[in-house]
Structure formats: structure tokens, C-alpha cells
Write a structure and sequence with these properties.
15 helices; globular; mainly alpha
């Protein structure tokens, strides 16, 4: 009887539109990540470890600064019950993104003018432009999720990846030291332009006055979202800055290649699940189907875990050999780092895509508390490891991964506990 019910449930899930949408996202995101993954062996031979280090530092910096883009109102685009309201939230997100980018540019110029002109790098000026187009792209992506235009969404990621890959190789061949950064910028720019033309006729704003209303209605996103997410982003990027400061630039370059390789296949699955999961659960929430939310949540978690296990096995036992063979013998240390870090990537693969559940229930405060804890424990772990005990890079990464496992398992418990307490929800 139990076997028959499980078999029936699995067949139902496999035939559902939810899994179909996930498959579309995975296919699109997969193709988007295959190109960068395929060209890394070329990039590792035309860019030095030091140039990878510069790119890694740039991405870490923008990873933190992009947290506040659009006041995080782009996350609310999926939530309104009508497309008219969603367009107003979209417009609000874009306007705030523009002002934020201009502010960043002014800060960078002032820093260059009055404080540290001697150490100024041209890549600093690229930051606000990257942040603007990245924020614009996020707004379009969330609107496409709302409309269930997952194919268009997926194609934008493929286009972004293609332009990024071609540009990075081209600039590398002409020996442009920050070609990886320019390639990244051109990729997100092209994806933003593509989505703008696709949805151009959809965005007709009736009243600017609506913006003030939605600025207040979804104020929890910036109030409870920006600072905790900033702490979360700083926590995620902290190992990069720690390695940059306490170790050598060459080690940072090898670490950066490891992150680039591991992020490719795992982020594909995570982002695909996150987009579809968010739309599906928001839909169930608006319909008042609280009990179905838990089933979708658990099915997603189990499926993500099953996907992550074989990837973890391969990388952990064959990391050094694979990296040395594919990217060149000089990158063998990247493989060694991958064997350690893969465990943290798998736990994040399972837990992170499901964290949008807090936005659905408007419980950003729980996220903020966890992110505050994550920030404190991460900095404490890093400080003790590299500053007090002065561990080698290998031991430092082992301690860091153990910390990640503990904190993300706690995060998963908070997600599940929230659902259990709100299964009785009704439409507001």
C-alpha cells in the first residue's frame, strides 16, 4: 500500500507543470552554465592566477553591493494579485536601482579624488555599471517568473552566458588584464536588453502615485531584507577577502577558479528551483493552499539532495585529478580546494533555493535573525582560523566548511518550522 502511494505520488510530480517549469529552468540555466564551464580550460590558460584573483575580488565586492539594488523590491514583483500592480513594483525597483548605481559611482569617484588615487584600479569604475544592469536584469527576471515565462527567462540566461564567454575569451587573447570583468558586464547588459524588448509592450504604468503606495506596502523587503542580506553577502564573500589579506594573490586566484567551477553546475540547479519554487508557493499562498506548500517544499528539498550527492562524490574523490587534467597542472591546488568545499556547496544547493519561503509568509525577520547569526559566526570562525591560530589554507577551508554545514542545517530547520506553523493559512 505504501509503495503504491509513493509510486503514484512520484508519477504525479513527474507529470506536473511544476516539474515541467523546473525542467525548463534547469535546461535553460544548464545551457547558460555549460558555456562558461566549457571555456574555463581556455580561460585558465590565457589568464594568470593573479588575473583570476582580480576577477574574484571584483565579484566578491559586487556580490555585497548588489544586495541593496532596487531596495530589494524586485523580490516583491511576483507577489501582487494583478499585473497592473506588479508593473508598478517593477518600475519602483528600476528607479531605485538607477539612483543606487549613481550613488555608488559618486562614492567611487570621491574615493579616487580625495583618498587613494595611487591604488585606484580601472575595474572600480565598472562596479556601478555592473550593479545597474544586474539590478535591471533581476527586475525583468522576477517579472518573467510572475508571468510564468520561464522559456524567455531561460533564454536570457543563455544569452548572458554566451556574450560573457565570448567576450572573456576575446579580451583574454588580446591580453586585457581585466577582460573577465568586462565580459561579465557585457553578459548582464545583453540579457537586460533582451528582456526589455521582450516585455516592452507589457510595461505601461498608469500612475506614478502608485509607486508611493507600493513603496510602503512592501517596505519589509528593504527594512528587513537589505541589512541582513548585506550581512549574509559579506559572510559569503568573507573567505575571499580573508584569503586576499592573509594569504597570497596566487592562492586567491586558485580559490577563485574553484568557486567558478563548483558554482556552475550547482547554481544552475539552485537558481532554477528557486525561481519556480517561488512562483509555485506564491500561487499556493494566494489560493490559501497552505498544506500543499509543505509537500512542494519537502519534494523540492529531497530532489535537490538526490541531485547533489553524485556531484559531491565525484568532486570529493577525484577533484585534484580532474582539475589538473582539465585546467592544467598548475591548477592542481584548485582541485584540492574543491574536494573540501564541495560539501558546503551541496548543503547550500538544498537549502538556499527554498529560503524564498520566508518572503512568501512575509517573515523576513526570521531571515534577518539567521543572517545576523551567520555573519557573527562566520567572521568569528575566519578570525580565529587565520588570525589567531594562523591555520594553513587547507585547514582553514575544512573549518569553514564545517561551519557552513551547521549553519545551513539550522536554516533548513527554520524553514520547515515556519511552514509547520502556517499550514492553516488563508488568503489575506
Amino acid at each position: 500500500m505504501i509503495y503504491h502511494r509513493m509510486k503514484t505520488e512520484i508519477i504525479r510530480v513527474l507529470k506536473s507543470s511544476y516539474l515541467k517549469n523546473i525542467s525548463t529552468q534547469v535546461l535553460g540555466s544548464g545551457l547558460a552554465q555549460i558555456l562558461p564551464l566549457l571555456i574555463i580550460p581556455f580561460l585558465s590558460r590565457i589568464y594568470s592566477a593573479e588575473e583570476f584573483a582580480t576577477y574574484t575580488s571584483f565579484m566578491a565586492t559586487t556580490g555585497i553591493l548588489s544586495v541593496a539594488v532596487g531596495g530589494r523590491y524586485y523580490l516583491a514583483i511576483v507577489l501582487p494579485k494583478t499585473n497592473k500592480e506588479a508593473i508598478s513594483v517593477f518600475t519602483l525597483s528600476v528607479i531605485l536601482t538607477m539612483f543606487y548605481s549613481i550613488l555608488l559611482l559618486l562614492v567611487i569617484l570621491i574615493y579616487y579624488k580625495f583618498f587613494n588615487a595611487s591604488s585606484f584600479e580601472i575595474s572600480y569604475l565598472i562596479i556601478p555599471f555592473y550593479i545597474f544592469f544586474y539590478g535591471l536584469w533581476l527586475s525583468f527576471v522576477n517579472f518573467s517568473i510572475r508571468l510564468k515565462e520561464f522559456k524567455i527567462n531561460a533564454f536570457s540566461k543563455i544569452l548572458q552566458s554566451f556574450i560573457n564567454s565570448i567576450s572573456s575569451i576575446s579580451f583574454g587573447l588580446i591580453k586585457l588584464s581585466f577582460g573577465l570583468i568586462i565580459g561579465r558586464l557585457l553578459g548582464v547588459l545583453s540579457a537586460s536588453i533582451f528582456l526589455k524588448f521582450k516585455f516592452n509592450k507589457t510595461f505601461v504604468l498608469d500612475s506614478i502615485g502608485d509607486l508611493k503606495y507600493f513603496l510602503k506596502k512592501y517596505r519589509n523587503f528593504p527594512i528587513y531584507g537589505i541589512l541582513p542580506s548585506l550581512l549574509d553577502a559579506a559572510s559569503l564573500q568573507a573567505p575571499i577577502f580573508a584569503i586576499e589579506y592573509f594569504f597570497t594573490k596566487e592562492i586567491l586566484g586558485h580559490f577563485g577558479l574553484t568557486i567558478m567551477v563548483l558554482s556552475a553546475p550547482l547554481s544552475v540547479l539552485g537558481v532554477a528551483f528557486k525561481d519556480v519554487f517561488y512562483q509555485k508557493v506564491a500561487e499556493l499562498y494566494n489560493l490559501g493552499n497552505g498544506f500543499k506548500i509543505k509537500k512542494v517544499f519537502l519534494n523540492s528539498a529531497i530532489l535537490l539532495f538526490i541531485i547533489g550527492i553524485p556531484l559531491g562524490f565525484i568532486v570529493h574523490f577525484f577533484g585534484e585529478y580532474l582539475f589538473s587534467f582539465i585546467f592544467g597542472k598548475e591548477w592542481i591546488n584548485s582541485g584540492k580546494y574543491a574536494e573540501i568545499l564541495i560539501f558546503s556547496f551541496i548543503i547550500k544547493l538544498v537549502v538556499s533555493p527554498l529560503s524564498t519561503i520566508f518572503n512568501i509568509f512575509n517573515k523576513q525577520r526570521i531571515i534577518s535573525l539567521w543572517q545576523g547569526l551567520y555573519f557573527i559566526t562566520t567572521l568569528t570562525t575566519i578570525f580565529l582560523s587565520v588570525s589567531v591560530f594562523k591555520l594553513t589554507i587547507d585547514l582553514f577551508l575544512v573549518i569553514y566548511v564545517f561551519h557552513e554545514l551547521v549553519l545551513y542545517l539550522t536554516y533548513f530547520y527554520l524553514q520547515l518550522n515556519l511552514i509547520n506553523k502556517n499550514q492553516h493559512l488563508c488568503v489575506e
